[in-house]
Design a protein that fits this description.
By secondary structure, the chain is mainly beta. The chain is built from no helices and 11 strands. Strand 5 and strand 6 form a beta hairpin. The radius of gyration is 13 Å and the shape is globular. The termini are far apart.
Length: 113
């Protein structure tokens, strides 16, 4: 029943910006966040926000990416600035509740040199 839909991915040149959006069905999530997976690599945490408003980021994106939204309203955003080719990946929205994780289908972000 729980579905997460991401949008906002695309192709940009290095130094550009994108804003990802995620809307989830359901409610009562403890946290929502963004993960990414590049070809040949494991999925990694990019940014997360809790129902209390706390945030955390991967070291590689601190100062460039900003997560925002309202977990209680099942929405989360990721503002990505100063993108680098190394940011190229499929970005997935995640919502968690009581040790259960729900994932979106992913949106492709490609950053050209």
């Amino acid at each position: 029943q729980v579905q997460l839909v991401e949008s906002g991915g695309g192709l940009v040149q290095a130094g550009g910006s994108l804003r990802l959006s995620c809307a989830a069905s359901g409610s009562a999530f403890n946290a929502m966040g963004w993960y990414r997976q590049a070809p040949g690599k494991q999925r990694e945490l990019v940014a997360r926000i809790t129902s209390g408003g706390s945030t955390n980021y991967a070291d590689s994106v601190k100062g460039r990416f900003t997560i925002s939204g309202d977990v209680a309203k099942n929405t989360v955003y990721l503002q990505m600035n100063n993108l680098e080719p190394e940011d190229t990946a499929v970005y997935y929205c995640k919502a968690s509740r009581a040790w259960t994780a729900y994932w979106g289908q992913g949106t492709q972000v490609t950053v050209s040199s």
